[in-house]
Every structure is written in structure tokens, then in C-alpha cells.
Design brief:
Oligomer: single chain
GO molecular function: hydroxyacylglutathione hydrolase activity; metal ion binding
Strand content: 15-25%
CATH architecture: 4-Layer Sandwich
Structural class: alpha/beta
Distance between the termini: 42 Å
Radius of gyration: 17 Å
Number of strands: 14
Subunit structure: Monomer.
Pfam families: HAGH_C, Lactamase_B
CATH class: Alpha Beta
Order of helices and strands: EEEHEHHEEEEEEEEHEHHEHH
Shape: globular
Strand order of the largest sheet: 1-2-3-4-5-6
Function: Thiolesterase that catalyzes the hydrolysis of S-D-lactoyl-glutathione to form glutathione and D-lactic acid.
Helix content: 25-40%
CATH superfamily: Ribonuclease Z/Hydroxyacylglutathione hydrolase-like
Pathway: Secondary metabolite metabolism; methylglyoxal degradation; (R)-lactate from methylglyoxal: step 2/2
């Protein structure tokens, strides 16, 4: 299978994603942080259609464009029930559901923590996943609604995927996450990884995507051994000034 993924920055630090199933030409947006930006990118790509929106959670910087994109393209909006609090939603998905983007199969995994209904979309046939605000490069989402135990369990669910899984996360937080990581972990390879991140950002390059293997090696929230250690690290990151 082949899925084309187009990443673009928008808002202050969000990434938007447009994806296209190469076999059928079906196009989807993963979250809708900025409808005007998404429409601009869609026109520039020349893909000529928008069939689906996949929402990971309800926060406005992930759903704000739903209504306009629905009005312009009559696309189907798919996501967790919580999206209905703030934006249009056509199809509710929950853990274990499948969403087809053309011939590309996405499996839905519930990952409560950042919000209670957060989901991620995993395409095992393409070794990639859109993790929203659950898993970031060297980080994880703040616990706005869920508990440390919930988020720890959610991350454990993602850790079982193959190391080569490409992780498309929704924000450019990696430099800040790297500074926190090196404050906890003095391994030389961690410092080298952080320096590569700082250099990429200095060149104006995105640090997304990452891979699950890299995150399992360096991400302090994936290397946490239990929920208590995870909770301590999450609390420390929340107050970190680096």
C-alpha cells in the first residue's frame, strides 16, 4: 500500500496533515487546525478533492476547521464522540473500529489522557500512525482531562507497534521536549539526538515525523517503567522552564 502524507505548519505550533490513498485518490485531512490553510495546501497539491476528516480529539486547534471544510467539500467527518462538543461529526469511532481511506486501512486505538476520548489512527499496512496529542517526539500530551494512569496505559498500547512505525504527531514541541529529556537522561546518545533536533529547528526544518523505535529509545514518557514514574515525569515537564 502507498499513502501520500503532506505535512504543513499552521497556527502557532500545530501541524496539519493531508493524506491521499495512492490506489484510489481518496483524500483525508487528519485534524483541522485551520480550514483556510488546509484549503490552500489542498489547492497547491492539486489533489482536487477532500473526502474525509479524521479527528483525534475535541480540542479546537484540532477541530476548528470541520464546519468550513464540510461546507466546501461535503466530506465525512470521523472521530470520537467528544468532538461533537465543539464541531460537526458524522461518524463516531471508538477502540477497535476501522476507517478506510480508499484502500488504506486505519485502526482506531483509544488513548485517554490528554482528553478522555482521544483516539489515534494507525495504518499497520503502511507502518504509520497519526497520534494527535497523545504521543509527541520526545514527549506526550498534557493531562487536561485524564489521569497519569490512563496516559501511561495509553502509551503502553502504542509501544507494542513495530519500531519502524512512523509517528506523525500534531505539534512542533520537540526542541522543548529535548531540553527536558537531557535534564533527565545523561546518556551521550541522548545528547546527540537532542543536538540534531536543535540543529534541524535552527534550519527551520520540522522534527516530525519520528519513529516509534526512536521514541522507545529516548522519549522519557515511553521509557517510564510504571505509572508512578510517568506521573512524576509529567509533573516535572509541566513546570519545566528549560
Amino acid at each position: 500500500m502507498t499513502l501520500d502524507v503532506h505535512l504543513f505548519p499552521c497556527r502557532a505550533d500545530n501541524y496539519g496533515f493531508l493524506i491521499r490513498d495512492a490506489a484510489t485518490g481518496v483524500v483525508a485531512a487528519v485534524d483541522t487546525p485551520d480550514a483556510a490553510r488546509i484549503l490552500e495546501e489542498l489547492e497547491g497539491l492539486g489533489w482536487g478533492r477532500l473526502d474525509l476528516i479524521l479527528n483525534t480529539h475535541w480540542h479546537p486547534d484540532h477541530t476548528e476547521g470541520n464546519a468550513r471544510l464540510k461546507a466546501d467539500w461535503a466530506c465525512e467527518i470521523v472521530g470520537p464522540e467528544e468532538v461533537r462538543k465543539v464541531a460537526p461529526l458524522d461518524r463516531v469511532v471508538a477502540d477497535g473500529d476501522v476507517v478506510m481511506v480508499g484502500e488504506t486501512r486505519f485502526e482506531v486505538t483509544e488513548t485517554p489522557g490528554h482528553t478522555l476520548g482521544h483516539v489515534v489512527f494507525h495504518a499497520p499496512g503502511d507502518d504509520l500512525a497519526f497520534t494527535g496529542d497523545t504521543l509527541f517526539a520526545l514527549g506526550c500530551g498534557r493531562l487536561f482531562e485524564g489521569t497519569p494512569e490512563q496516559m501511561f496505559d495509553s502509551l503502553q498500547r502504542l509501544k507494542v507497534w513495530p519500531d519502524q512505525t512512523v509517528i506523525w504527531c500534531a505539534h512542533e514541541y520537540t526542541a522543548s521536549n529535548a531540553r527536558f529529556t537531557v535534564s533527565l537522561d545523561d546518556r551521550p546518545e541522548v545528547a546527540a539526538h537532542a543536538e540534531a533536533i536543535f540543529a534541524a529547528r535552527a534550519r527551520g526544518e520540522p522534527t516530525v515525523p519520528t519513529t516509534l523505535g526512536v521514541e522507545k529509545r529516548f522519549n522519557p514518557f515511553l521509557t517510564a517503567t510504571d505509572a508512578d514514574q510517568f506521573a512524576a515525569r509529567r509533573a516535572a515537564k509541566d513546570s519545566f522552564q528549560g
